[in-house]
Design brief:
2 copies of one chain form a homodimer. By secondary structure, the first copy, chain A, is of the alpha+beta class. Chain A is built from 6 helices and 5 strands.
Chain lengths: ~150, ~150
């Protein structure tokens, strides 16, 4: 239906129709990004015989989606990613702008390569689940503890 | 052996000997409290169908003790305590002195009543495990997430 409309709007030009569809898709994702996410789950993952632990809060729009396997698997995967890849910040916006020692791709969870599929970012993985469940999804916070990494 | 020495020191007076033993015991616990704790475990506990999560780092002196059931059970119990009782600070020292709205017994993990045995504090529970395993034990940090408790 979207395709037909786009083709009509593009007066039959396929290239133009594809451009219209792409813009519509982005618009739809943007619209979802504005929707408030008050439901969700807390997930934790303990690694390396109890020496590393990660905990994450992942939010969605409804309790219904929070209970789906797709959503729970995403939360579990994110906890594993945090344990393995030790991100310092959630997103580029949270990382200090002025610090040149920071490599955003390594330090920011959403920009990191997905350990399960290094060709895509964690944000790509989240976007995929957004497409599957049809709700906005946000990672709101995470914590990662490693034995002895904090001064006592 | 300690008892005999104490009785000799107290010249046969039982009351005095008990006092000496008590002081020795406190001294021993204090000595342990100075020992560095670089080993330990990270433990996590997820509650209420994924709506509440707690993670804690508990440290001891050796990897050997970190692998014992006593120690692992303490860590698990502390994670459950944190999930259930929502402490804000680790100890009295970490809580802001000037804030009169804070009830230390409710806000500080180590001062809270143990959910399993409300007559004693969490510090008492930790001291009991210290006595069992013969090593200093410290809780160095914890985190508690509840879905939607953070502004998005």
């Amino acid at each position: 239906m979207d395709c037909r409309k786009a083709l009509m709007e593009a007066e039959g030009e396929t290239e133009k129709a594809l451009q219209i569809l792409k813009e519509q898709g982005l618009l739809r994702a943007k619209k979802k990004a504005e929707r408030s996410t008050t439901q969700g789950v807390i997930e934790a993952y303990i690694h390396a015989g109890g020496r590393i632990g990660a905990m994450v809060e992942v939010n969605c729009e409804t309790d219904f989606v929070a209970r789906t396997n797709e959503f729970k698997e995403l939360a579990h995967h994110l906890a594993m990613q945090i344990a393995a890849m030790n991100p310092k910040f959630l997103s580029r916006e949270e990382a200090p702008e002025e610090d040149e020692d920071i490599d955003p791709q390594a330090a920011c969870l959403l920009l990191q390569s997905d350990i399960r599929d290094p060709d895509r970012s964690i944000q790509d993985t989240i976007d995929e689940t957004i497409a599957k469940v049809g709700e906005n999804i946000r990672v709101s916070r995470f914590a990662r503890f490693e034995v002895g990494s904090q001064k006592s």
